[in-house]
Amino acid sequence: MCLGVPGQVVERLGDQPHLAKVDVGGVKRNVNIGLVENDGVKPGDWVLIHMGIAMSIMDAEEARSTLEFLERLGQIDSTSAVS
């Protein structure tokens, strides 16, 4: 089964336009945003990540719901992930 994980965009990496630093459960990592960059992804936006690639932009409520579900499954600690 494939699983996407929500992450919040922290910053766009100017020297690498297809990458953004994204906070995933308190861990910041570089994510390829090439599939969603034309949608105007910006810091503060939530994206659904699979295999290091942002697949879609999602709203904060959807991100919160998904993180809570993953937490119940024991897959992620969302206590600091969604403000």
Count of helical stretches:
1
Largest sheet: 5 strands, antiparallel
If you compute it from the alpha carbons, what radius of gyration comes out, rounded to the nearest whole angstrom? 12 Å
Question: Per CATH, what is the topology?
Answer: SH3 type barrels
Q: Note poorly predicted spans.
A: 78-83
Q: How many structural domains does the protein architecture include?
A: 1
**Strand content bin:** 35-45%
Give the integer mean of the pLDDT values: 87
Element string (H = helix, E = strand): EEEEEH
Cα distance spanning the termini: 28 Å
Task: Explain what you see.
With 83 residues, this protein is of the alpha+beta class. Helix content is 17%, strand content 37%. It contains one helix and five strands. The model is unreliable at 78-83 (pLDDT under 50).
Key words describing this protein structure:
disordered C terminus, SH3 type barrels, 5 strands, 83 residues, 37% strand, five-stranded antiparallel beta sheet
